[in-house]
Each structure stands twice: as C-alpha cells, then as structure tokens.
Amino acid sequence: MNDVSNTLPVPAPARPSAHDPGRQRSILHLDLDTFFVSVERRMDSRLEGRPILIGGTGDRGVVASCSYEARGFGVHSGMSMKMARAMCPEAVVIRGNSMAYSKQSEIVTEIVREAVPVCEKSSIDEFYADLSGMDRFFGCWQFSRELRERVIRESGLPISVGLSTSKTVAKVATGEAKPNNARHVSRGTERHFLAPLSVRKIPMVGAETYRTLRNLGISTIRTLQDMPVELIQQVLGKNGVAIWKKAQGLDDAPVVAYNERKSISTERTFAKDTTDGDKLHAIMLAMAENLAFQLRRGDKLTACVTVKVRYADFSTKSMQRRIPYTAADHQLVPIAKDLLEQLLDKRVRVRLIGVRYSHLVGGGCQINLFDDTEEHVKLYQALDRIRVQYGDRSVVRAAGLEARTIGRTNPFNGGPPPLLAHRHQ
Q1: 8 Å CB contact between 66 and 53
Q2: Catalytic residue among 40, 69, 120, 126
Q3: Who's near 69: CB < 8 A, 6+ residues apart?
Q4: Distance CA 225, CA 250 (A)
Q5: How many angstroms separate the CA atoms of 280 and 335, rounded?
Q6: 126 catalytic residue (yes or no)
Q7: Span 155-211, pLDDT tens digits
Q8: Which domains does the chain have, with CATH numbers?
Q9: pLDDT tens column, 100-118
Q10: Alpha helix locations (H) across 303-349?
C-alpha cells in the first residue's frame, strides 16, 4: 500500500466557517475505492489484480462499476457491457450483489459514525465527517489516518481520504489521493492545490457544464479562478457563481448528520372509507412509483419500504421490508403492493394508506444497473426528464391513473415534502 501520509504537512488552523465565524473547520471526506469491485475481491481473493466488470451480464446490460485494471482499457461506468467486453476481452464479468454491498456499506458506516462527532453518509460508499475542534486533543490529520487504517483493518476494504477546510476541497483531495491513499490540504493552500487540476474535478461540473467551460477556453481550475465571477454568472447563471466559489476553495456547506434525512413518505386519506382492493392497489402503485421518482431526482437510494393501513375504526397496521439499496420503480412498486396485500383485511373498510422509503443514502441509480439493460436505463432517464419538465404525473402507469396529482417539490433541496400528507382521494 502506497501511503504518502508521512510526507504530508501537519494541519494548520482551519478557516472559520460562515455558519460560525469563530469556528475552525476541519472536514474529512472518505471514499471506498471501487467499492463494488473491492467487495467482490474480499469475497473471492482470486479476483485480485484481474480486470473486473460489474453490471448486467448480457450484451444488453450496462457496466455499473469496473476495476482500475479494466479502466486501463478505456472501460467506464455506464458503458454497454457488450462494448466493455470488446475493449477488455479478458475481464471477469460479475452480476452485482446489491445485498452484499449494502451489508458492507453498513459495516463501514458504523465504524465511521462511532468514531467522529458528526458523520454524513453521502452515498453507499462515501462519507463526510466534521472534525472541527478535534485539533486541541490529538490532531485532525493524525486522527484521519488512524480512522482510515481502522476501516481497512475492520472491513478489509481499501479506502481513500481527504482532509481540508471544506467539503469541496476534501472531496477533490480524496480523488487526488486515489487509489487507497490519503491527502491533506491545509488552510491557506486550498486555492493553490486546486489551480492545476481540470475543471471536471469540481463537484457540480458535469459533462454539459464542462463542454460550456471548454468552449470558453477554460480547462483548468486556475483559469476559472482568475476569471471575473460576473462573467461566469452570465454564462452559467447561479450555478456559475457556486462553481466559481468552489474553484476558489470557498465552500461553507455543513456536514449534515446521517440521520437527519431518514425517510420520504406519503399518505392518502379517503373521503369515503373503502374496501375496493383494485382502487387501493392502484393508489399504492401511484404513490410508490412517484416516491421512487423523487428518490432518483434527489440522487437517493432506499433500503427499507414501509406500508401503513388505517381502518375505519382508526386501528392502524404497518409492515416493513429491508431491501438492497435501490431507487427503481420495478423493484420498489411490487414490494409496496405486496406489503399492502399482506396488511389488508378485506372485510374491513380502509380509511388511509401510506408508504415510506427509509434508510436513505445518496448514490443515484448506479446500483440498479446490476439488473437493468441499456434500454431500461435509457427509458428511466427519458421518463424522468418528461416528469421534471411536465410534472410528476405526466407519465404514469395505466393502473395508477386513478390517483390524483402529486406535488412536484424536490424533497432533498430544503423544500417541503414532495407529497402532501393526508390528501383526500
């Protein structure tokens, strides 16, 4: 293991946060290296050093993850499995085991949560920790290295970490440390550290924004740093200002405790109590489907589905099921309908039904690629684009047409819940 930690500087006092002018910030970012691949290698040591493709195993499947060895052949996530196999014929192709990945993610989560004052689980394999104030005890950098070593020792998985004064710089530092290494960017050096890197390294800069910046002659962060913020704002709007600030190393976004956003849910109260099973299943389908869309729009995954039924006498029953992380309709809707079927007492009138997705983490739909074909992925993307532009109910399953309009607010951007609770049907 190549660890450069011994050559890195001792952390300097962190820049005060805008949220608390007197508080010195030390933000740690942790990212499990090629997580899915690493879990597979932990379960089968024969895979060490071999190029690996994880995803749909047929020609119509999609690459969800690949090893560094496979990346050397030009393979990347999101590529069709057929093309990836042609580019790297010697690769081992593995259908993803989402249950195993979820279990390993939970193991690492508990290690990190126990060790740090505030932990944010931003995806299935990625974490932030606010270590501010810990320098007075034993030093944030020393602690960060020790935590990394503990994760490796107790989980058996490689992990890279970055420590700096903000989430943005810490995340970029982690990327520069990979694979299986650590990097510290001390206060006052953030701008210098970022300057020579590609603008693609800045969080928020996707393929489209990158093309726009390249058309302006901006390829490195240094060029962006030296440009007037007004010009960037004219080209990219509000996002341009945020990107420009990140390029300067300025980011006061707080580390949000993992449990603060535990779930997303909705309930429907009927104007008239009903025993109409078809109607109940149709509404459950619509609610489960829409919540799944909200997850994808918020770049979230769920690992637990709960369904609730309240009867005319106000007695309430609920049932939940733990599942591998997902945000896919075709996985979540059948589970919600099955739980509803188990809960329903067909002899008693129903007053309310509800569904909740909990144990949320970031991570988008990558993990869904284990079972999806390239056509399936493109269909989801197309339908979601239509929903974003024309409304959540602009595209629905025929069986869910009875359900009325559902709110369009994104629940993961600080707004109110996406679905109005107790809406009468």
Answers
A1: yes
A2: 126
A3: 49, 50, 51, 52
A4: 11
A5: 15
A6: yes
A7: 999 999 999 999 999 999 999 999 999 999 999 999 999 999 999 999 888 888 999
A8: 5-34+101-247 (3.30.70.270), 261-424 (3.30.1490.100)
A9: 888 899 899 999 999 998 9
A10: 329-343
